[in-house]
Amino acid sequence: MNEKPLFPDLNSPPKPQRDETGPAQTNADGTVTVLGYKSIDGGHESTEPLGHSTQGTAARQPVRALILTGFGINCEEEFAAAYKQAGAEPTIVHLNQVLHGHVSIHDYDILNFPGGFSFGDDLGSGVVLANKLRYRKNTEGRTLLDDIKQFIANGKFVMGICNGFQVLVKLGLLPNLSGNVTPEVTLTHNASGRYEDRWVRLKVNPKSSSPFLKGIDSMEVPVRHGEGRLIIKGEETLAEIEARALNCLAYTDYDGSPTDVYPHNPNGADLNCAGLTDTTGQVFGLMPHPEAFLSLYNHPDWARRKRQNPGLSEEGDGLRLFRNIVEHVQSQAAAVPQEASQFSS
Amino acid sequence: MDSTQRTIQLLLKPGQHDGEGQRVAEAAQRHLGLSTGRVQSTALYTVRYPVSDEQLRDFATHCLQDPVLNDVALDEFRHGSEYKSYILVAKLPGVTDDEGISAQNALGDFLNQPLDIHTQHIFSKRLYFLEHELPESSLRRLAEDLLGNKMINRFEVGPIAQIRDYTPRPGGGAESITNTVPLVGLSDEELLKLSKDNLYALNLEEMRAVRDHYTSIAEERQAAGLPQDPTDCELEIIAQTWSEHCKHKEFSAVIKYKDADTGEEFEVDSLFKTYIKNATSEVDRQLRANGNDWLIKVFSDNAGAVRINPESLFVWKVETHNSPSAIDPYGGAITGILGNNRDPLATGIGGARLLFNTNVLCFGNPEFSGTLLSNQLHPRRIFEGVRKGIEDGGNKSGVPTVNGAIVFDDRYAGKPLVYCGTGAVMPMQLAGLDSWEKNIDAQDRIIMAGGRVGKDGIHGATFSSIELDETSPATAVQIGSPITQKLAMDFLILATRRGLIKCSTDNGAGGLSSSIGELATISGGAVVELEKVPLKYPGLRPWEIFVSESQERFSLAVEPAKMAELMALGQEMEVELTDIGYFTSDGRLDVRFDGESVARIDMHFLHEGVPRKVLEAEWSQPTAQEPALPADLDYTDVLSRLLGSLNICSRESVIRQYDHEVKGRTIIKPLMGATGQAPQDAAVVRFNFESWEGVAVSNGILPRFGDLDAYHMSAGAFDEAVRQIVAVGGKLPNLSYGDGNFWSVNDNFCVPDSVYDPATNPDGKLKLAKLVRMCQALRDATAAYCIPLTSGKDSMKNDFKADGVKISVPPTVLYSMTAKIEDVRRTITSDFKQADDVVYLLGETYDELGGSEFYQLFGELGANVPKVRFEEAKALYTLMGEANEKGLIQSCHDLSDGGLAVGLAEATFGHGFGADVELPATGLALSAQLFSESHSRFVATVAPEDVVAFEQHFGARATRLGVVTQDGQLTVRHGGQTVLSASTAALRHEWTNGPVNRIIGFGQHETAQ
C-alpha cells in the first residue's frame, strides 16, 4: 500500500491551520510553532507543545511505546500518560492504522493493548479483537499476529491490561507454553457473576523473571472487570505455569498471602492469579489496572495516608511497572554498540 | 427452518460452573416462587449467511467457542437428558443486537471478507433448559419477569421435546407512502381525536392553531402544487417540535398565581424566563462586573459551557429519561446515559471529550409486596434494570460514573426518575474557530453519522410528554449500543480537531426532525432527501424515517469542500456517514423522498407558532404538626435503625458495579478510606495528567421536604449541592476579582401533571403552585451564592395511570453542580484521619425535624421543614474556603439525611476510628441536635496543633464536639449523661447490610450447585 496514511496517529498535531487564526505561536527565540493537542491527555487540550520527560535519558533515543485504540478500547489515555511519566514516548494509534499497514509495530519497542470493551465484548471479553488479529490479512497477506510473533522474536515487549490481557490470552500469546500461540487458559466471568471496581493487593511471584516486575514485591491497584477469572485447562498446564513461574501476580489478603477469599481475590481465579507472562517474560498481561494508579491521589485512602506521612511520595504503585520496562529497554539499547554510538557525544 | 439458516449453540463443558443458570434458578425461586430445578444456560447464534459446513464448524470452534469452557453443537439444540422444559429468548425485529453484530464482525474477519455490518446476518439468542416440567404459563412468566422484556424480546417456551426457534425477520418491502391528513374544517372534537389517535400529544388550542395555519396558507400551498391539508410527515414534525419535551410549553406559559392564605396574586410571564434565564443573566452581570467572564454558553445549545482556563472549556449537561425507564428499565437507562453523553459531545462544533457521568435515581420501595397495576413493573425490577443500564452505558463507553444518589419513595413506583449527567472538556479553539459556536451557511451539507434508522423510538418526544398508561407504545422503547456510539465519539473527536465539521448536534428525541429542524434555524432552512437515509431494514414510511429516535446518531453540518476528507476519515474509522441533504436560507424545512415533497413547512410557524398556555396556580400552606414521640428513646438503637434505612444505607453493591475510575483521573470517589466504605460528598475529577486542576461534582435532591413546603425543598436541594462541593474544598465563585473559579449548575424539574382539570387533575393548581415556589427558591439561591445555571430540563407529566389508579411522583427537582478545584491534592475527604483530631460542628442546628429521616422511622412527617439561611450559609462557606487555603481542616462531611448522628457515624467508616462527643447545652432538644436535618452544616476534624487557629477563624460558627478516638467506639454525651454509645464496626455493619445491598446482593463468589 503506497498511498499516504489518511489518518495520522492521534498524537500528531493537527495539520497546519489557516494563517489568519489558529493556535500557532511564536516562542522566545522567534520560531513559529504550530501547536498540537495533547491527545494522550483528553482532559487538557492545551496549545502548549508536548513536553517530554527527559529525566535520566537525556540525549538518548526515547523508548517508543505503541498504544492501540479504537473499537471500544478506552484506557489508552492513562496508558500513554504512564509511559510518558516513565520517560518513554507513547503513541496512540487506531487499530485500523496498524491493520491497514499505515503504522508498523516494528517501529516501536513496546506494543500495548489497553483495557476497555473491544467490540463491545459481546462474545466474551477480547474475543472479537483476538480474532481480528489472528485472521484479518493485510494486502500482503500477513495477519497482525504474524507481525506480533516477529516483534517478540526480535526481543521486543508486549503488554496487555484488563481487556488487553484478555485479548492476549484469547489469542494464545499468554501463557504460550507450547510456543505455537494457541489458547491454553481462559478468562471468564468472575465467580461473583458481576462486574466490580475495587482495589486489590498483588504479590509478585519472586521466581518471575519478567523485566516488567523487576524489584517489585507487592502493589496495590484497582480491578475493574466482569470477566477476570483465570481458568487453566488441565493439571499439567497448571503445573507447568507454576513451575515456570508464569503466574507472575497473585491476589493477596491484608497480610500479603495469596488468597482465594472474596473480595481480596475479586474473581476466583485459578492460582489466585492476576497476571501472566509468557515463557520469555517479554509478553505480560494482567487484569488489574496499574495505569490507573499513577499518582498517590488515585488511591482511595490517599488523604489519610498523606496525613499520616506528609512526606509520602506522590507517585502511585502502578508507575513502577512502566518505569521498569522503559529502563529495561533503555539498558538494552545502551548495550547495542551501533545504536549506542549515536548517543556517545 | 430456512435452508440457508444455520444454528450454532455454545454450551458450557461438563464441570464448568453455570453461574447464569444458577442465578436464574435462584431468582425464580426467590421472586416468583417457581421451582425450576437446575437450569442450564446456552448461547445460540443463528447464521443467515451462505457458509459451507466446514466454514460453519471452523467459525464456531475458532471464533465463538472458548476452548477451555465451551462445547459446540451445530444445527441442533443439545441438552442434558435430565432437562424437561425450555425457554428461548430472542429479540424482536429491529431491536439492537450487539452480540449478533459482533459475531458477524468475527465471521467477516474469519472469512477475510468484508461483510456489510449493517445488514444483520447473525442473530444472537439465549436458550435455557429447566430440570422441572413447568406449565407454559409459568415458563412464560419466568421469561417475561426475569429473562427479558416482552417489549423487546420474543419468547418461546414449552416442553423440551418441542423446541420452537424464532429468528427476527424485520421489515417487508419499501413503503414510500406519504398521506395527507384531513385537517381543514375539522371540529374541535375531531381535532382532539386526531391528536390522541396519532399520539401527537397536542391539546385543542394547539391543534386549532395548526388547522388555522393550514387554512390561512391554502393559496400559497396550492400555488406550490401542494395539497391543502398537511401531510402525515408535516403533522409529525409539528407535533414533535411543539412537544412539551422540546418546547417546554409549561415552563413558558403565563401562570396566574394565587396564594389562598394571604390573598396575594401575581402573574408569572414564563417560569423559565423569570426565574431561570433572568436569574442567570443577573448572576452573569455580577460575575463580569468582578472580572469573572468564564460563563461562555448558557441555555442555547445541547449543553452549557464554562471556561476552565484560556485553553479549555468545561461542558456539562444533566437530563432525565423517565418514561422509557418505566417500560424497559435497562433500555431506558442505557439510552438515557448514551443520549445524555451525546449532548456535551455535540455542543458547539462538537467533539468534546467526556470526563465523567453522574446519575441520580428515584425508585419506589424495592421491597414492595402489594399488587402491581397493569403493565406496572415491580420497583425492584426497575431498580435492577436501570442499574444494569447505567453499568453498561458508562462502563462500555469508558466514562467513569463518579457519583450519584438513589432516593426511594413509594410515589416513584409508577414512573421512576432517571437523571443522567455528563461532564466533558473541549478546547476553546477547534481548528482555529471558537469551539462553542454553531455556524452554518446555506449549501453546507447535512451528514448523518453513526447508527442506522429503524422503527425504534418513534414518538419518543411526544410520548415522554404524556402520562403513561397500560397502552403505552412499544415502538417508544430503544436499546442503546455503547460500542456504536464509542466509534462515533472517537470519530467526532478527530474530525472536529481536523476542522472537517462546522457544527454537530445529536439525534435524540424527535430524531432527524428535531436535530435538522434546530440546526436549520441557524442557516434559515434545509432540504432533506430521506431516500438517502440508511435504514436498519426496509418498510419505514418517510415520516417514520424523519422522526425515528434510533440511537447513536449525530447530524453534522459540513462545508462541501471538506466532504471528501470527512468521508475518507469515516471509512477509515468504520463510522457510517451519509449525505442526506443541505442547508438553505429560504425559511423552509423541505423534506423530500425520491424528489417528491414529503413535508414543506415554514420555519417561523414551526418554531414560533405554538400558542402560549395560560395556567392557574393556587398555593395554600399544608396543615402539619410536630409529632409527640416517646420520651424514652434509645438513641443508639435509633441511629442503628437510621443507618439501615432505605434512604441512608450503603449503596456499595451498586457503586462497585460502575467503573468510577476509568481514565485514571478520579480523585474523590463515592467510597473512600482504608476500608473503601466511607461515603463521600462531592466527587472530584482532575482534568488531565499534567496539571492538578479539577472539577468537583455534586447532586442536591430532597423531594420529601416538598410535602411541607416546595420552596424550602428547592432551596434546600440547591444548598445541599453547594455544601457538598464546599465540603471537599470547593470555593464559592466570584469571591475575588477575576478568580476564574467557575461553577456550572443544571436544574432538572420532574413534576406530576400540574395542569388543572376539574375531573382528571383536581389538585393541578396546587401542584403548579409548588412548581412556581420551587422556581422562586431557585432564583433566590442563585442570586444568594452568585452561582449560575447553565442548562436544564423539565419533565412535566410524571404520572402512571392504570386500572383507574394514578401514581404521581412528588414534585422533584435535582440540582447538579460542578465547580472548579484549583488543586485536587488539597481536597478534603469525609472520613476521620487520625486519633486525637478535634471534632467540630460547623454551622447551626435548628429545631427542624420536619420531613427528616428520623421522623420517617416513626411514620411521621412533622412540620418544621429545614430552611436555608442564605446569608449565614454564604458567610460560612466563605470561611471554609479560607480555612482550607490554610490547610486547617483534616476531614469534612456535609450533614443531610439523618443529621449529625449519621454524619458522625459515616465519618468513622473509613478506618474504624471512634469519636467521643459532648453535645452542648443550647436549649435545643437532644433529638433535634442529633437528627435535625438543618441545612448548611458540616462535621469537620482539625489537627490538635491547628485548634487555636481554627477556632479563631470560625468564631461562633464552629462548635467543639469532642475528639476522634482510636477505640472504635462512638460515644455521645449530653448534660453529663451518655446518650448514645455504639461500636463503629457494628454501625458500619448495619449500614453495609441495609436493604439496598441485600437486594442487589453482595459480590461474594458463588458456590457451585
Automatic annotation (TrEMBL), chain A:
GO terms for cellular component: cytoplasm. It comes from the Bacteria. SUPFAM superfamilies: Class I glutamine amidotransferase-like. InterPro entries: Class_I_gatase-like. Residues 1-30, 38-57 are annotated as: Disordered. This is Phosphoribosylformylglycinamidine synthase subunit I. GO terms for biological process: purine nucleotide biosynthetic process. Signal peptide: none annotated. One of its GO terms (molecular function) is phosphoribosylformylglycinamidine synthase activity. It holds the Pfam family GATase_5. PROSITE patterns: GATASE_TYPE_1.
UniProtKB/TrEMBL annotation, chain B:
Residues 301-421 form the PurM-like N-terminal domain. It holds the Pfam family AIRS. It is found in: Cytoplasm. InterPro entries: PRibForGlyAmidine_synth_PurL (IPR010074), PurL_linker (IPR041609), PurM-like_C_dom (IPR010918), PurM-like_C_sf (IPR036676), PurM-like_N (IPR016188), PurM-like_N_sf (IPR036921). One of its GO terms (molecular function) is phosphoribosylformylglycinamidine synthase activity. GO terms for biological process: 'de novo' IMP biosynthetic process. Residues 444-592, 835-973 form the PurM-like C-terminal domain. Keywords: ATP-binding, Cytoplasm, Ligase, Magnesium, Metal-binding, Nucleotide-binding, Purine biosynthesis. It is an enzyme of class 6 (ligase). It comes from the Bacteria. Its main location: cytoplasm. Mg(2+) 1 binds at residue 319. Part of the phosphoribosylformylglycinamidine synthase complex involved in the purines biosynthetic pathway. Catalyzes the ATP-dependent conversion of formylglycinamide ribonucleotide (FGAR) and glutamine to yield formylglycinamidine ribonucleotide (FGAM) and glutamate. The FGAM synthase complex is composed of three subunits. PurQ produces an ammonia molecule by converting glutamine to glutamate. PurL transfers the ammonia molecule to FGAR to form FGAM in an ATP-dependent manner. Monomer. Part of the FGAM synthase complex composed of 1 PurL, 1 PurQ and 2 PurS subunits. HAMAP family: PurL_2 (MF_00420). Belongs to the FGAMS family. This is Phosphoribosylformylglycinamidine synthase subunit PurL.
